[in-house]
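Recall the central idea of this unit: under ordinary conditions, the amino acid sequence of a chain determines the structure it adopts. In this exercise we apply that idea directly, starting from the sequence alone.
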Amino acid sequence: MGIQQVNDVTLIRHAYVAPNRQRKGTSTKLLTHLLSIAPTTTVLVGTWQAAHWAIRVYEKHGFRLVSNREKDMLLRKYWHIPERQIETSVVLKLETKN
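Accordingly, the structure predicted from this sequence is:
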């Protein structure tokens, strides 16, 4: 798991927790650390619509799903991904107090 500053936002990138480390607080520790060093106050993460477990983890940490319209705009602005991936993804957003 890592972060990438792109213009005025921070992206959470490649957020995976090995199956044998899931449900042991690993994602909480990683997210807490990443958010503490995020260089911007707006943090975005993109994931697959079908990854309900991942969406729940981010929502547990204060992220909120953005509308489909905003999702499309954000994915085109901050990521370089194919249209098909845009169609099948969601974006979650967190405004931090840093």
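The mean pLDDT is 92.
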